[in-house]
Amino acid sequence: MPEIAVDASLLAGVPRRWRPAPLIRLSFALHGAGVVALVLLPQWWLAILGTLAANHLLLSLTVLWPRGKLLGPNLTRLPRAAVQRGEVSINFDDGPDPQVTPQVLDLLDRHHAKASFFCVGERAARHPELVRDIIRRGHSVENHSHRHSPAFSFYGLLRLRREVEAGQAALRAITGHAPLFFRAPAGFRSPLLDPVLARCGLSYTSWTRRGYDSIDRNPAQVLARLTRNLDAGDVLLLHDGGGARTAQDQPVVLAVLPALLEQIAARGLKPVSLPAACAATTP
């Protein structure tokens, strides 16, 4: 069997040097220049503060753009090698759920598909054997924060660090492996998050398309969002925890997943975990 080595362009799992994204560097520069300008040209205080306020507004808007890359690297599609191999990656957020996750795992097994589960640290700690079962079946467990707070994107740097590191520690203690990828709760990424991820050796991941199965009760609509223009390299987002339920009280993810896996197979694509997709095969 060939040895699998992580692609250096997406190296994760070890601390790395943080390089601020261009927008963050611009923000630092504007604030520094603003302080100097206020000292030298105090009569321009209104224009200076207006410029800084506009900068903060821009940063706030980027938080609401989950697939954007202005705040740092963001994996929205699989790397070129995975595209050439015809791979896609299905991701499940907000679990594990003792009722839904085992059924998701059974469906994946039935279709010989692998996936990545972005688990919430506290929920994983309540169901450690279920998390270990995810690993045993050949999937990956990734970091989706420790508490999944709706205020996550508003946290300060220290609180962000505690939240990410607590999730990382909880999942590593259960599985024996440190997660390689991180997704923010609801996909809302703080401008302060990237240095925390660098410290933890995590790569930020969003998606190519998502089904909105956490709020949409119509499986047909969810499936249509995921399969419209479906192609190699796509990262597809569903939820095995906290998802919506159909009118018949079935979790939407369970209604959608079989048809999604069938369409993926019909198009000659292969569902894999994120670590497998972002790995390079060497002799």
Percentage of residues in helical conformation: 40-55%
The CATH homologous superfamily of the largest domain is named: Glycoside hydrolase/deacetylase
Structural class: alpha/beta
Number of domains: 2
Mean pLDDT: 88
Number of helices: 11
Instruction: Characterize the overall form.
Output: elongated
Question: Beta fraction of the residues?
Answer: 5-15%
Report low-confidence residues grouped into runs of 5 or more.
1-12
Report the count of strand segments. 10
Q: Could you spell the SSE succession in H and E letters?
A: EHHHEHEHHEHEHEEHEHEHE
Distance between the termini: 9 Å
The name of the CATH architecture of the largest domain is: Alpha-Beta Barrel
Class of the largest domain in CATH? Alpha Beta
CATH topology of the largest domain: TIM Barrel
Give an overview in words.
The protein has helices at residues 22-40, 45-63, 80-84, 101-110, 121-126, 128-136, 157-175, 193-200, 219-227, 252-266, 274-277, and strands at 3-6, 87-95, 115-119, 140-143, 181-182, 203-204, 209-210, 235-239, 270-271, 279-282. Mean pLDDT is 88; it is low at 1-12. It folds into 2 domains: 22-63; 80-282, TIM Barrel. The chain is of the alpha/beta class. 43% of the residues lie in helices and 14% in strands. It has 11 helices and 10 strands. α7 packs parallel to α8 (193-200) and α9 (219-227) runs parallel beside α10 (252-266). The chain is elongated and about 70 Å long. The termini are close together. The strands form 3 sheets. Strands 2, 3, 4, 7, 8 and 9 form a 6-stranded parallel sheet that branches. The relative contact order is 0.20.
